[in-house]
Amino acid sequence: MTALYALPDHEVVEALVPTIGHTRLSNDAGVERIRAVPGMVPLAIDPEIGEDGQPTGPGAVLWADIGQHRFREWQYMYTVQALARDGGIGEAFKTDFDILLDDRILADPISPSGFMFHISRCGSTLSAKALARSPRHVVINQGGPLQRGFWAKLTRDWQQPLEATPENLHAFRNLVLAMARRRNADELYSFVKFISWNTLYMDFAMQAFPQVPSVFLYRDPVEVIASVLRETSAVMWAKGRRQAGFLTGLPWQDTVAMGDVEYLARIFARYLELADDAGARVADINYRSINPDNFPAMLSRGLKFDPGEDELALMCEQFRFHSKDDSDSQTFKDDSAAKQSEISEADKALTARLCGPAMARLDSSPANLFPRSALV
Prior knowledge:
Elements: H1 9-16, H2 27-36, E1 40-46, E2 60-65, H3 76-85, E3 92-96, E4 112-118, H4 124-132, E5 137-141, H5 149-154, H6 166-179, E6 189-193, H7 202-208, E7 214-218, H8 221-231, H9 234-238, H10 242-248, H11 260-278, E8 282-286, H12 295-302, H13 309-316, H14 336-341, H15 345-363
Parallel strand pairs: 4-6, 4-7, 5-6, 7-8
Antiparallel strand pairs: 1-2, 2-3
């Protein structure tokens, strides 16, 4: 399986939906089509910035009609892939980026009921897919437009910091709401699971939606690193590029020769530290505590969301299956021990030095829904 989630979102979408680049509409024309077509949502954002860091255009939003398809695939990009394969993509076009400042693009949006940030490979996909089992829920699982393009546009490909200006926050709000459009009459709630490195923009997202509760899911970084080394990730694509400087907090050139384990450990340490700094604004959940018995409390205490017993039972069915298998043909098997065995003792020590202090603080934090002393 190609790791679509590891590549720039606009490149993936343009490859899957070649017609999307054939038509570039004015903002007024784009608004007209968005409002006229109930299944029209943004699939990706092209920052239109060249390798030299110079703009090649004003930035573009890539839109397509996905009809009434419910987000059930384990990631947004695999929804696009499945629809493209099966002929399920309708009308498609581009608009300029600044259409996101036009509130007319909001056609029956569902305001988010919860945000999910995470360290990667830590039960976040499982939790999001469990939520997505209910037909009442629109779950944006690592939405393509928020994977890279949006942030690259606002930072000029990480040549400047992201600023929480009214304009930038407005564009973010409208993008999230446009993705979470009600396309089926029974849809009442929406949830957004961000790509892991968006954790570094957690404060920005919470400023845009101050009333939306958020959780941060994390796991022993040794096991996360082992998983990434097996399957790659978006942060590995960024290694040796300007974005890597933002991810590590170091000059991006330093990441070119940096070992993969150190590179990942430095990034994951920043996620953990930022989540710890967020305090009570974000509920923390260790992977070891994510199970069917705790899931109701994750929703109730973490996301302030209390579905009925029947709906909870439906969602908890997901815990029986491998979360990255959309066919539900593979049962879940805990591979923590195998992942621990794949990392050398020297690399474990390096990871512990970089990530251990913040990990320990999170495990015992008052913001942890299941603190270390109560882990089950």
